């Protein structure tokens, strides 16, 4: 199936952002696990001076001090200037609302945007990918779409209020994916409900991408892979602890104590090249996620 490219003047309208960001729409721990298994360390072989690389979580990242943010992307676009832009993505997602903000920033760029999905564009990263006028994806890469996923606590009235709060954002994403792919909103909603992973060929068949990215354009960086997996364990463990009732601050403090034996956190962040050996939290994370 052939899908036309959507150029700057025809890009989908801006997506809504919440006026109140007290609620964060995140990526599930299981998505981080799949990314670590299938896509960690995948990088581009070449990078030009008009490239924005998104090989990180979406939103500010507590564990690395990095993360892809709308503020950073805006600065990068300003540096590139009035030229075509290439966006390289390998991300499990993160803060979905930050992903929406980045999508909105990219859609305002006046020149064509080429998105290359290297490894995975999941959750918030899949939203960003839809800003591309031309979307290329590796044959073994994935695009994953799902509904806004948050951590909420309270009685049934509190939870209903949260569900009502999230509904417009899910609908906005349905409309975006439908406009980009040409698929029906009913099918898009069904795929989001099912947390659907689309391989490269399936993403093209369904209109979420235009063509396959050459395998020669990608490589697996061993040091980056170790670092990606190490930090992934920390992020997934944090979310698992929050899911069990801890605040994010409490979760981070518990992980910090497990890692260092104290609460100072001074030696928490280590050189990326040794991250895979340094953290060693995968077994504990698996135990936390084991069904009761």
Task: Write structural notes for this entry.
It comes from Pseudochrobactrum asaccharolyticum. The protein has 292 residues and is an alpha/beta fold. It folds into two domains: 22-220, 2-enoyl-CoA Hydratase, Chain A, domain 1, CATH 3.90.226.10; 222-289, no CATH class. The protein has eleven helices and nine strands. It has helices spanning 29-38, 70-80, 96-107, 124-129, 156-181, 185-193, 200-205, 222-243, 248-260, 275-279, 282-289, and strands at residues 42-44, 51-54, 85-91, 113-122, 134-138, 142-145, 196-199, 211-213, 218-220. Strands 2, 3, 4, 5, 6, 7 and 8 form a seven-stranded mixed sheet that branches. Strands 1-9 form a two-stranded antiparallel ribbon. Helix 2 links the parallel strand 2 and strand 3 (85-91). Helix 2 packs parallel to helix 3 and helix 8 runs parallel beside helix 11. It starts with 28 loop residues before the first helix and ends with a helix.
Topology:
Elements: H1 29-38, E1 42-44, E2 51-54, H2 70-80, E3 85-91, H3 96-107, E4 113-122, H4 124-129, E5 134-138, E6 142-145, H5 156-181, H6 185-193, E7 196-199, H7 200-205, E8 211-213, E9 218-220, H8 222-243, H9 248-260, H10 275-279, H11 282-289
Parallel strand pairs: 2-3, 3-4, 4-5, 4-6, 5-8
Antiparallel strand pairs: 1-9, 6-7
């Amino acid at each position: 199936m052939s899908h036309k490219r959507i150029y700057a003047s025809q890009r989908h309208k801006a997506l809504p952002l919440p006026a109140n960001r007290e609620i964060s729409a995140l990526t599930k721990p299981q998505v981080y696990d799949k990314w670590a298994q299938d896509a960690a360390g995948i990088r581009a072989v070449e990078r030009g001076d008009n490239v924005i690389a998104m090989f990180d979580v979406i939103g500010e990242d507590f564990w690395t001090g990095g993360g892809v943010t709308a503020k950073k992307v805006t600065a990068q676009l300003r540096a590139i200037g009035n030229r075509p832009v290439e966006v390289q993505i390998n991300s499990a997602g993160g803060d979905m609302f930050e992903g929406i903000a980045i999508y909105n920033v990219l859609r305002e760029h006046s020149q064509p945007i080429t998105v290359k999905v290297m490894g995975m564009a999941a959750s918030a990263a899949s939203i960003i990918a839809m800003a591309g006028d031309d979307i290329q994806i590796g044959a073994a890469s994935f695009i994953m779409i799902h509904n806004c996923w948050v951590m909420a606590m309270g009685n049934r009235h509190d939870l209903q209020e949260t569900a009502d709060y999230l509904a417009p954002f899910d609908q906005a994403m349905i409309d975006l994916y439908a406009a980009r792919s040409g698929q029906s909103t009913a099918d898009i909603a069904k795929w989001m409900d099912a947390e659907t992973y689309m391989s490269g060929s399936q993403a093209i068949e369904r209109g979420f991408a235009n063509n396959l990215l050459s395998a020669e354009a990608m490589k697996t960086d061993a040091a980056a892979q170790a670092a990606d997996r190490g930090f992934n364990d920390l992020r997934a463990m944090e979310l698992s602890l929050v899911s069990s009732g801890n605040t994010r601050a409490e979760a981070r403090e518990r992980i910090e104590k497990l890692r260092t034996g104290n609460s100072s956190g001074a030696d928490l962040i280590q050189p990326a090249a040794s991250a895979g050996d340094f953290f060693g939290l995968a077994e504990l994370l698996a135990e936390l996620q084991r069904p009761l």
